[in-house]
Automatic annotation (TrEMBL):
Pathway: Amino-acid biosynthesis; L-tryptophan biosynthesis; L-tryptophan from chorismate: step 4/5. The lineage of its organism: Bacteria, Pseudomonadati, Bacteroidota, Chitinophagia, Chitinophagales. Belongs to the TrpC family. This is Indole-3-glycerol phosphate synthase. It comes from Chitinophaga caeni. NCBIfam families: PRK00278.2-4. Keywords: Amino-acid biosynthesis, Aromatic amino acid biosynthesis, Decarboxylase, Lyase, Tryptophan biosynthesis. Pfam families: IGPS (PF00218). One of its GO terms (biological process) is L-tryptophan biosynthetic process. It catalyses: 1-(2-carboxyphenylamino)-1-deoxy-D-ribulose 5-phosphate + H(+) = (1S,2R)-1-C-(indol-3-yl)glycerol 3-phosphate + CO2 + H2O.
């Protein structure tokens, strides 16, 4: 594990222990959103009226510092939805990414497309919490978890009707793909050096088991790259910075999605 990742994981264990004493699992299970019917990201990624983009709301990151702390979560995610995102990714990590549980709850209030809880899951409590705040999908990061944890956490998620996106960065981590993993994401960003290389997605695509939906993550800034990734078998494209770094991420998304729809129509 890289230094920064080890630091985040240690911090996460502390945070979860604290939150767990304030809000017990039984309380989470009584939340209204806990019983809502979840939406399938797998289905939305291939819906003909959508773009395959999982559009992310991210205020800051360890690699970039502040990306955008001026915009509102409902303005941005509402536009992502309206202009054809297949899903939303909302950071709920506070210390490193400037997100919060409240951001996801707010996004849920106004959007009827799948929402990925973007966080570092190190404890089952966070999965129950994800359901209770209105998420549809959880992220599991192979680099932070053992093979056994991935299998166990993915099973817990499925028992709650949540889908599971497993993030990998190397071929070796494919060993952690479990039965209950629905989607495999290739993170193009190296969490040690923060360098981004979209070729990582092209290299790993043929090695991902055929029954898992493929998602390319990070460093995507170009509609033509999405077309190539589609040809390589990807159905999902997780994009944050390219929209968030603009003063109006909503308008940036509208333009990008329009270009993509146009390119797709002429294929
Ligand atoms: O902002 P980008 O380069 O478009 O990347 C989005 C997303 O892939 C990235 O935010 C991400 C991928 N895996 C993560 C794990 C935790 C936090 C964030 C991430």
């Amino acid at each position: 594990m890289s230094n920064i990742l080890a630091e985040i994981v240690a911090q996460k264990h502390k945070e979860v222990a604290e939150r767990q004493t304030n809000r017990l699992v039984q309380d989470l299970e009584r939340a209204t959103l806990f019983n809502r019917k979840t939406l399938s990201l797998k289905s939305f990624l291939v819906a003909p009226t959508r773009t395959g983009i999982i559009a992310e709301f991210k205020r800051k990151s360890p690699s970039k510092g502040i990306i955008n702390d001026m915009v509102k979560v409902q303005t941005v995610t509402g536009a992502y939805n309206r202009f054809g995102a297949s899903g939303l990714s909302v950071l709920t990590d506070g210390p490193y990414f400037g997100g919060s549980i409240d951001d996801l709850i707010q996004a849920r209030e106004i959007n009827n497309i799948p929402i990925l809880r973007k966080d570092f899951i190190v404890d089952e409590y966070q999965i129950i919490e994800a359901k209770a705040i209105g998420a549809d999908v959880i992220l599991l990061i192979a680099e932070c978890l053992t093979k056994e944890q991935v299998a166990q956490f993915a099973k817990t998620a499925h028992d709650l009707d949540l889908e599971v996106l497993l993030e990998i960065h190397s071929a070796e981590q494919l060993d952690k793909v479990a039965k209950d993993v629905d989607l495999v994401g290739v993170n193009n960003r190296d969490l040690t050096t923060f360098t981004v290389d979209v070729n990582r997605s092209f290299e790993l695509a043929p090695l991902i088991p055929a029954d898992k939906v493929k998602v390319a993550e990070s460093g995507i800034t170009d509609v033509n790259v999405i077309i190539s990734l589609k040809k390589a078998g990807f159905d999902g494209f997780l994009i944050g910075e390219h929209f968030m770094k603009q003063s109006s991420p909503d308008k940036a998304f509208e333009r990008f999605a329009g270009d993509l729809q146009h390119q797709l129509a002429s294929l």
